[in-house]
């Protein structure tokens, strides 16, 4: 047996010339026998970090993964790269299950993906105790933490399992979203020994961020989609009902849209997902049930029709855009109703069953706290990217130039008097009303509630002439900065905040940034920058061939080659095997399978023949 270097493995199997940020460090640490925790954003390339060393170890690597679809995608991709891999989960028949386990006993796989529920079954334990397990990898490792989103009790079996092995393998854990607390939880729950912890920057530079507070969400969505006719995107909604509604209305308007949520049959879910992945549908309207393990590289926008429950979810879902590294847009359509809906979902969450009510209450209050931070994201007038990165414990400059706040023309105005009026009003009504009522009082509304409760006799009635939207913006700013506080009940009530004294008693001067012209956000240019200089005709011809291979093998197109690999072909115009190997994303297995066909198309193109 000849020993290959990590670079040689990367090139030969995955077709890449160099490791990305953090990858080489984690691979080296693993090879040196150290436990590792890799915290990297979606799309950063976590899989390579354990797949490359798995090819260099003698013995098998077990990979724990929470979802069937995720395992399937990864095993698919590995098989395409010429690496022997399989999975064990509930999608297999009993026969298939035994066959895979037998193959594994015979040492036929380098990687075996396993659902956490399987680990402690008698059969699997017997296999594991009698095999040479080189490495144990935990994907989506945040699932082990009760403080993270997506806590999975079955992940707690991992430590039991490890303790029953005759020899402890190297343990590597990976996650995309982890705050410091979750990170510590991963290390302690897995009892990692002196691990190397690598946190790469969370910034996804190719993503732009935008928050809109539309009067009419659907109209705003349509205006956005009009500029995206040729592109592929995901629209996330909080509830199944909204998914149905939005999808219906889009279809009626002629969009190629399909839907995805947990209320559909397994078969329809699968069909719809495939329609989207195989590019038969341009748009998928979905709940958060969609997406984990979706490695579709050419998603160029993610719209959130509703605000999600926390920034972890938001960044993970929005992060499904632009995985090919090309520019992509993440848009959030906010309304106050989203906050109430999420509060309701937190209070009625039946996902996890907790033995102790105390624990349940603690977890729910953490959920509410996260929701609050998510809401602040929608209200801040500062750089959105900075806000996200700070949330995940990263430092960031306060101007990115690529989010809706950085692109908006703000002016700083003095709101000292406005702030005093608003706080006095909240004080006068003894902190009993929500934002809407406070605004109505301040602006002198004559609506029924106001008149019925005689709120029009208050001294603060009708003392503000500003537009409703502006008063609301100022109130949000005051909440954001602790001058006011919003309770987290079902009907949130405005209270005086910790810093209210500064305004009411110390008469502090308050300034805030207000948008000068919201129109500053221009629709994006037609051609994506990375496509400039690429021959569109050749690219289309290569995409056709890719589609033929994909349909023959019943796999998504990007499993054959990603868009960026095809673009690189157009750029390098390879005319023989060794030139084809220079294309980023082409390894030896893919050269063997697809090289000839693509090379002949390219040489036809170069010599002027039609495709
Ligand atoms: P993650 O699991 O971190 O979300 P993946 O492992 O799915 O990310 O990788 C995302 C994409 O980046 C994949 O298409 C993968 O092939 C590609 N990729 C990973 N490492 C490299 C590299 N060193 N060079 C080029 N592309 C890479
Ligand atoms: Zn910014």
Automatic annotation (TrEMBL):
Q: Where does the Helicase C-terminal domain lie?
A: 220-370
Top-level class of the enzyme under EC nomenclature: isomerase
Catalytic activity, EC: 5.6.2.4
Q: Which cofactor does it need?
A: Mg(2+); Zn(2+)
GO MF entry, a single one: metal ion binding
Q: Which reaction does it catalyse?
A: Couples ATP hydrolysis with the unwinding of duplex DNA by translocating in the 3'-5' direction
Q: Which residues form the Helicase ATP-binding domain?
A: 27-196
- Enumerate the Pfam families for this protein: DEAD, Helicase_C, HRDC, RecQ_Zn_bind, RQC
Q: Which InterPro entries match?
A: DEAD/DEAH_box_helicase_dom, DNA_helicase_ATP-dep_RecQ, DNA_helicase_ATP-dep_RecQ_bac, Helicase_ATP-bd, Helicase_C-like, HRDC-like_sf, HRDC_dom, HRDC_dom_sf
Sorted alphabetically, the Gene Ontology cellular component annotations on this record are: bacterial nucleoid; cytoplasm; replisome
Q: Does the keyword Isomerase apply?
A: yes
Q: What is this protein called?
A: DNA helicase RecQ
Q: Which organism is it from?
A: Clostridium aminobutyricum
Q: Gene encoding this polypeptide?
A: recQ
